[in-house]
Amino acid sequence: MASSVPQNSILNESEIEENDKVPARPQLNLSGAAIFQENYQGRDPAILLPNQQDDIPLLALDIGGTLIKMVYFSRHGDPLVDDKQKRYLKEGLEVSNGSNRSYPVKGGCLHFLKFDTRKINECLDFIDSKQLHRGGIYWRSSEAASKNNMVIKATGGGAYMYANLFKERLGVNLDKEDEMDSLVAGANFLLKAIHHEAFTHMDGQKEFVQIDENDLFPYLLVNIGSGVSIIKVDGNGSFQRVDGTHAGGGTYCGQGMFLTGCKYSFDELLELSQRGDNKLIDLLVGDIDGKMDYSKIGLSASTIASSFGKVVSEKRKLKDYRHEDISLSLLRMISYNIGHIAYLNAKIYGLKRIFFGGYFIRGHACIMDTISYAVDFRSNGEEKALFLRHDGFVGALGAFMSYEKHGLGDLIGGPSICRMIPNGAPYVRGTNHGSLLAGLNEKAIHHEAFTHMDGKKSFVHIDQNDMFPYLLVNIGSGVSIIKVDGDGSFQRVDGTHAGGGTYCGQGMLMTGCKYSFHELLELSQRGDNKVIDLLVGDIYGGMDYSKIGLSASTIASSFGKVVSEKKELEDYRHEDISLSLLRMISYNIGHIAYLNAKLFGLRRIFFGGYFVRGHPCIMDAISNVVDFRSKGAEKAMFLQHDGFLGVLGSFMSFEKHGLDDSIDGPQISRTIPNGAPYAEGTSQGSPLAGLNEKISWTDKLRCLVNKVLSVKGGAVKLSEVETYIPAAARIRQDKRETSSSILKGVILLLVYEGVMHLPGAARIRESIFEFLAFLLACEGVMHLRGATRIQDSILHHVFFVLAFSMYIAYSYTA
């Protein structure tokens, strides 16, 4: 028989060996659990266990790449328990759990603490000082070398990475619990047992939500740690990990450290963001459209069009930007993206409840507001983001309760909360839309579409009688995702502001603003992202996370490795930074595109836009995401003229405005509605519309220039414009060779058209222009002499896609 153990006593290992049996286990009673009333409004409030009788030290850990989360039980004599709490424990407990009830003298509390993973010794010192690990003497570890070894329940990748350290310092074995199992167990406990655990947070207003435990399932659980896991929970012990992203808390912290010179911790970065102004960093709709709202599609002038996009057009250095503004811009980019992906998954699986947890949130108002805005906006107000008061401790709570799972059924009264089941799929492997669609829907080009996987390019034959419907993903400064049902029939269904402008803006800042877009891409070809990114193997001690199909080389958190290393920004190679950033942006775009294809049941996804520009790494990253998530059922397809779709559509649309004499031969395109950049509908059309053909070209160009000058960022002054208006009219009449003057006028036209709204091509070199001119001449669309002799002065007024202007220039001189 097992010997009895007096309350408050602890047996040492020699006593256990002598008895050859483990003493009777004290029991943990979770019935009646509630938030401790005296700390009701605080962060991570203690959870009262009013019916707990046995006094036993017990704890569980969630050891992540950035933080260690601890849950431990204490009944009395705890230096962290204040006098008021001690008085409640001694004199009777008043708790709020739907009604006011008094409990006799008994009970204890679950406490919640965090430690920086880089300072893990502080965590070990705390455990040792309070002798919390001694409670593990009552439980057997499945991995224990002998049956009397003490154990601590632990989850997270650090349970593998730091197992030897715990053994050496404390003499305990870390009994490893699966992360997904722990997350779901912890969330189910909080949502079913704790009153006022869940709440909404919108525009700074917090409102608690009553959860009916009989109507809880199904729901979506989004856990935001270094990376992000998205889990569909169908009931007690029934769940599936359906999605995730590696752009999470580790990304925010890692990039934030880079962009602020590695001077701040996670908490300090969050604090900085509260004093920031992201409008100084992000490109807004108003910056593109002259401070006007895009009211036709419901976008205000303050809407972010491209995160970090404003950096591209400004000739400033990293030191010229405030750390507060950088932190807020980055925080909103990461938070909005997480809310966006979570909503798409909820839509796909028909779920109405989305709960967000994880220590990235930590009750931060801006994070919660941004996530809430993303869910509210995309669902048209039909769904709300829900948050948890113990957001960062969900996994640790689940691990704490798992002592019951291995035959310890008396530890938790009632039905078990979670069972072992397979997890879902992993999340990663190893402008003007009318013009865009007109360009893509032109069906006469053989060998236009191709796939690109693992460096191999394969052309795809497109049957023009069976090409609809498809998804078009145009990647410029931001990203537009368009569902195309036929010629002239389409809808902009989604988009993201983390696009080419984000890559270029962040890349410039992280590398000291030394490189152009093209140079950043070239740098990435010589990079090694494993130096920057936190991989699954880094978390799990070099092992795969085979249970959910993640290899050790899978990226778990973009820029996550930066958080754990004590390095300065200059210690990292620009090549590695560029590649890590490129893969993060590319993966994310492919991810969101695939979710939209799945949502609308589409099998073809075409990727275009000048961000792609035939770059193998970009195409491979996008292809891998689509291939993996669809289990090989879908392939990402790219276009030979990926950056020229919009201008091709504009070129073919002259007929629509009564300018059919500008195109020789058969009409290529009929009236094609111009799409809107952020939502369904049509654009406002070209400024050429409404200009009567009888008006002289001099007056037409003058009219267009006046309109352009009303838009913020007009390239030249009116006095300069006057010098080339006569030249433009003369060229129209006698087809003389193109001069730099007419090219300036064409560029102004395109700025107004919205075809080229990406800022910042002042540093484009003449060699690039020569190549583009040669390419276009070979295509047979440009026969202008002297097109490559572009003067230096034009460099101050053009964008990096000068090829657009070449197309339009030809149309004016044909």
Automatic annotation (TrEMBL):
Residues 1-23 are annotated as: Disordered. Coiled coil: none annotated. The keyword Transmembrane helix applies. One of its GO terms (biological process) is coenzyme A biosynthetic process. GO terms for cellular component: cytosol; nucleus. InterPro entries: ATPase_NBD, Type_II_PanK. Pfam families: Fumble. Signal peptide: none annotated. Keywords: ATP-binding, Coenzyme A biosynthesis, Membrane, Nucleotide-binding, Transmembrane, Transmembrane helix. The chain crosses the membrane at residues 794-812. One of its GO terms (molecular function) is pantothenate kinase activity. PANTHER family: 4'-PHOSPHOPANTETHEINE PHOSPHATASE (PTHR12280:SF20), PANTOTHENATE KINASE (PTHR12280). NCBIfam families: panK_eukar. This is Pantothenate kinase.
